[in-house]
């Protein structure tokens, strides 16, 4: 590890991009482990109730799931393009790509909203009479479905807020082509949100 | 000696000069991004919670002085031991050494001006404070304090009407604080070391804090998600842990201990690092087996991650799992043994100076060894069946946690107090309180080994008459302990205001923290030092300002 001594001299604005990125990656490890706990719980119950899990999975709308996967993957691309645009000093394009990302994220959440409300209107939600009459595996499947997609949805919202702040900072010239570590880190966070969805999608929608 | 230090003292210390616009007042502390001020903020808040937790402990002991009701009813007793556990674990012992001494000394010992993310560091303290406030809200709001024990075992934690959700929310938030501190420390050690501060020149306190920081990062998310699941279970009845709809309460225990066992090493590893600092300083001899000690910290962090199920030997597991977890548990004793033997070897033929910090370390070695060896009794399957959930377990973990980490918390306070505040305390009282601690500690906790062996279960409100004698001894010990704790803190608080000025190097230490003024200036070093010596190379002492008297 080499020291960034040039930055060290001016201590008032201590800046260490490699350090910031390292900190972000460490944070992402904690996020992965957080979901790791959920995947563990999922694995245990999938192993205990294999048939009932596939039965319940057939009730989820694969079309909406696929659509959301495409949307989220594309939004990951637009974030990366936004960073690339800023690196090439094109502030306008960078902001446009962030706006696009926000729109995709919003679209994802809207789809999620309709998906959830459809299920809830059918009386399928934790603790509902309809659900409690079903088998244990199905109850757990939907319990986990709401928990895991819910916590993921929360991360989407946090990511949206984060990217919105980045957008403001770019417009205000606080983030520029030679100081874009916070944009890069927010991008990393967004990729994580995307990555987790890529695992959630097959686990809930495809394996049945 | 005063003359020598005049040039150093002319410079303003971090106590007089802050990072905030306003130079004085409480705002210059609670909004300061200076790692030293944040360390002291933690010290103040953690000490207060320690005293609250200790008071609860004394009250519980008082209740147990005689069979039947003495001063509180059974429900209050349940809430008291839960609170005692939650406060001591989440508010005192987990943040204790890393947040206080790690914050203060990690940047100094590696030759940096601050941690990698100073603002994040301040945020961590605020999150800690918010978590603590929520924990207090859980006590006073309707429903009453949680009565589940600090482990929040399912299904009772879902069924009870007390404020479990709020209490575990507090634990969730405190976990966040701990995680952010971990991220900060790992990055700092990687990125901020002074020129010449190679990995194998890092003081051993840094090595152990570094290993701890990794556990904080890797283990804490698991408890976070487990807590979220319990809260969801209470609010919506998701069913993940509810056996009536297919959920598995044992799964909760696994998830809980996947964090909470590594957390034990979050508590003890930094303490071991401080032992490795104090012993060379007071033996005037370089540490024996530097690399072995450094690597054993990492080994403990790694193996400690894989032994969680030894808390669940009676919960129901396959025979294979039982044997594997028991074996792995025994493996932890190896790196721990490496450390203890190296410490003893360091003292061999050293020029030992039994000042108070060293006496505290002696307390540690004896108490921690008792705690560690009784841990092996609990780690082996057959004996654990007999002793599981008895006072034996209570005695064991108080010996390792309080006798281990708690003792070193005091050792570190007495070692670094002159550096942190530039004041010296009363040596005689300090040595006396260390001795008092040893006596009252054993009076308080040793009877519990015997009680547990005789079959007294933990967390019981009442007991059979034949246990009375030992319970009384233990309660009397708790009074001695309380007086000792007041003495420990009283001595320091008095010296804070009335103590004599401390020199920059009262003990003759050679790590970087002893090269700078006491208390340190705002930016620690005028110029980032270039490190040319091994951490415990006492030949440097000749060139340093040190008056051996």
What does this structure look like?
The complex is a heterodimer of chains A (208) and B (549). Chain A is mainly α and 208 residues long. Chain A has one domain: Cytochrome c oxidase, subunit III, four-helix bundle (Four Helix Bundle (Hemerythrin (Met), subunit A)). Chain A contains eight helices and no strands. In chain A, helix 2 packs antiparallel against helix 7, helix 4 (62-87) packs antiparallel against helix 5 (91-121) and helix 4 (62-87) packs antiparallel against helix 8. Chain B is mostly helical. Chain B has a single domain, classed as Cytochrome c oxidase-like, subunit I domain (Cytochrome C Oxidase, Chain A), CATH 1.20.210. Chain B has a two-stranded antiparallel sheet. In chain B, helix 4 (74-109) packs parallel to helix 7 (164-191), helix 4 packs across helix 9 (249-283) and helix 12 (356-379) packs parallel to helix 15 (427-454). The longest helix of chain B has 36 residues, at 74-109. Residues 1-9 of chain B have low confidence and may be disordered. Chains A and B meet through helix 2 and helix 7 of A and helix 7 and helix 8 of B.
Topology:
The complex is a heterodimer of chains A (208) and B (549).
Chain A (H helix, E strand, L loop, with lengths): L4 H5 L7 H32 L1 H8 L4 H26 L3 H31 L7 H4 L3 H36 L9 H26 L2
Chain B lengths: L1 H9 L16 H4 L4 H29 L10 H36 L8 H23 L15 H4 L4 H28 L12 H33 L12 H35 L6 H14 L15 H29 L8 H24 L1 H7 L3 H31 L1 E2 L2 H28 L13 H31 L1 E2 L48
Antiparallel strand pairs in B: 1-2
Helix pairs in contact in B: 3-4, 3-5, 3-16, 4-7, 4-8, 4-9, 4-14, 5-7, 7-8, 8-9, 8-10, 9-10, 9-11, 9-14, 10-11, 11-12, 12-14, 12-15, 14-15, 15-16
